[in-house]
Design brief:
The chain has helices at 40-55, 63-71, 80-101, 105-109, 128-141, 185-203, 219-229, 248-255, 273-277, 294-305, 321-333, 348-353, 379-383; strands spanning 3-11, 17-24, 29-33, 117-125, 145-150, 180-183, 208-212, 236-238, 260-262, 283-284, 310-311, 340-341, 354-356, 358-361, 364-367, 375-377, 394-397, 402-403. It is α/β, with parallel strands linked by helices and 405 residues long. α10 links the parallel β10 and β11 (310-311). α2 (63-71) packs antiparallel against α3 (80-101) and α5 (128-141) packs across α6 (185-203).
Length: 405
C-alpha cells in the first residue's frame, strides 16, 4: 500500500478543528486530529508545507518508522505544533491499518481490558447551588464521576464557568482577541471547600468528584488545597500547579494525600517522566493529539503502569471527535486506564461534519466494531464552516499581573 495524497482541512463547526486525511492507492484513507486550540493555522502550515510532501509514496503500514522519521528525523524535537502534527499522522496511520485489517484499533492494541469506558462529566455553575444542580442532572443520566467548577464570589469570570456564553468564541468580540478574566487565589481558597462539602452532603460518598485548578496555584498553596479537600475524597485534583518544573509535584506530595492529575498540555513523556517515576502524580492526562498520537500514548500508559499512575486522557471540546475516538480505543485497551473526561458528543454543527461509532450509556462509552478508529469526516459539510480566528482567555490578578490561565 502507498500513500497517494495528504489533505489538511481546517474547519469551524462550532469551534476550530484541524483534520488530516491520508489517502492510499488502495482506496483506504485514515483520519487524524491536529487541533492546537488558538494556534490552528500554525499546525496546518507545518503539516501542509513540511510533513505532507515526506509522506507521499510511503507505506502507511510503517507506523513506527514514520513516527521516528517525523520525530528524530526533523532535528527539531518536541513542542506542541510538531507533536500535534505527528499525532495526526500517527492516528491516521492506525486508522488505515485497522481498516486494512478489518479490525477496530483497540484490537490492534491488544484487545479489550474492559467492556466500556467510564467518563467524568462537567458540572460548571454560576453558584455552588447551580453547580450542584448541574451535578444532579449528570447523576440522573448515570454519570458516576463529575468534575465540579463553580464561579468565585467577587470575581467576574472563573475558569470553566461561561454563564450564558456557550463557548470561548462567544466571549470574544467581532475582532477576536483573548478575553481577559480575573483571578484571586484568596477568593478561590475561601470558597472551594464549601463546594465539595455540599456536594458530599447532597450526593453522598459513592459518587466520584474531580476538580480542575487550571494551574493557578503555587506548590505550597496546592498542598494546602489538597489537605483542605482530603476529607471529601476526590478522585483527583487536576493541574493544581503548572509544572515545567516537575519537582513542584514533589512539594505537593509532601503535604497531602489528595490524588493529583496533570498532563493535558504535555507533548512528550519528557514533560512528565520525573513526576511519573517518582510517583508524585496519580493520573496522567495527555491527549493523543498533543502527545504525538496513539503510538506514544501506548508507551506512556505502559510506563505509567509501573508507577501506579493511571491514564485519564484530556477530553475538552477543542479536541476533535477523531482524537476522542483514538482515546476510546486506548481506554478500552489500557490495563491502567483510570477515567475519560467527557463534555458530550459534539454539537449539532460538529455532528454534521464528524460521524463516530461510539454510544453513551449510563456515564460510559461503548465502542462499536467499525474497523480503524470508526470515525468519518464529511469534507463538504466541513467546507460550510470555514476557519474563524479564536483565542483562549488569559488570566490576570486583580492588580493586573498576568497569571496562568
Ligand atoms: C481543560 C480544558 O478540559 C480541561 O480539563 O483544562 O478546558 C482546556 O482549558 C482547554 O482544552 C484549552 O484548550
Ligand atoms: Mg484541564
Amino acid at each position: 500500500m502507498k500513500i497517494t495524497d495528504v489533505r489538511v482541512i481546517v474547519s469551524s463547526p462550532g469551534r476550530n478543528f484541524v483534520t488530516l486525511k491520508i489517502l492510499t492507492d488502495e482506496g483506504i484513507y485514515g483520519l487524524g486530529d491536529a487541533t492546537v486550540n488558538g494556534r490552528e493555522m500554525a499546525v496546518a502550515a507545518y503539516l501542509e508545507e513540511h510533513v505532507a510532501p515526506c509522506l507521499i509514496g510511503r507505506d502507511p503500514h510503517q507506523i513506527e518508522d514514520i513516527w521516528q522519521y517525523l520525530y528524530k528525523g526533523v532535528y527539531w524535537r518536541k513542542g506542541p505544533i510538531t507533536m500535534a502534527s505527528i499525532g495526526a499522522v500517527d492516528m491516521a496511520l492506525w486508522d488505515i491499518k485497522g481498516k486494512a485489517a478489518g479490525l477496530p484499533v483497540y484490537q490492534l492494541l491488544g484487545g479489550k481490558s474492559r467492556e466500556a469506558v467510564t467518563l467524568y462529566g462537567h458540572a460548571n455553575g454560576s453558584t455552588i447551588e447551580d453547580t450542584l444542580d448541574k451535578m444532579g442532572d449528570l447523576v440522573k443520566q448515570g454519570f458516576k464521576v463529575v468534575r465540579l467548577q463553580s464561579a468565585i464570589p467577587g470575581l467576574d469570570g472563573t475558569y470553566g464557568v461561561l454563564g450564558d456564553k456557550k463557548d470561548y468564541f462567544a466571549l470574544q468580540s467581532d475582532r477576536p482577541l483573548p478575553p481577559e478574566l480575573p483571578w484571586s487565589t484568596v477568593k478561590y481558597m475561601n470558597m472551594i471547600e464549601e463546594l465539595f462539602a455540599k456536594a458530599r452532603e447532597r450526593f453522598g460518598n459513592e459518587i466520584g468528584l474531580c476538580h480542575d485548578v487550571h494551574s493557578r496555584l503555587t506548590p505550597i498553596e496546592a498542598g494546602r488545597l489538597g489537605k483542605m479537600l482530603e476529607k471529601y475524597n476526590l478522585l483527583f485534583i487536576e493541574d493544581a500547579v503548572a509544572a515545567e518544573n516537575q519537582e513542584s509535584y514533589k512539594i505537593i506530595r509532601q503535604h497531602t494525600t489528595a490524588p493529583m492529575a496533570i498532563g493535558e498540555i504535555y507533548n512528550t513523556v519528557w514533560d512528565c517522566k520525573d513526576m511519573i517515576e517518582n510517583q508524585w502524580i496519580d493520573y496522567i492526562r495527555m491527549a493523543a493529539t498533543h502527545a504525538g498520537g496513539i503510538t506514544p500514548m501506548r508507551r506512556i500508559a505502559d510506563f505509567s503502569a509501573m508507577y501506579h499512575v493511571r491514564t485519564a486522557p484530556h477530553g475538552a471540546p477543542d479536541l476533535s471527535p477523531i482524537c476522542y475516538a483514538a482515546h476510546m480505543h486506548l481506554n478500552l485497551w489500557a490495563p491502567n486506564f483510570g477515567i475519560q473526561e467527557f463534555v458530550g458528543f459534539g454539537t449539532e454543527k460538529s455532528n454534521e461534519v464528524f460521524k463516530y461509532d461510539l454510544q453513551l450509556r449510563d456515564g460510559m462509552v461503548y465502542v462499536g466494531d467499525a474497523p480503524g478508529l470508526g470515525v468519518d469526516f464529511d469534507e463538504d459539510a466541513a467546507a460550510r464552516y470555514p476557519y474563524k480566528r479564536s483565542y483562549l482567555p488569559v488570566s490576570r490578578l486583580e492588580d493586573g499581573t498576568l497569571w496562568s490561565w
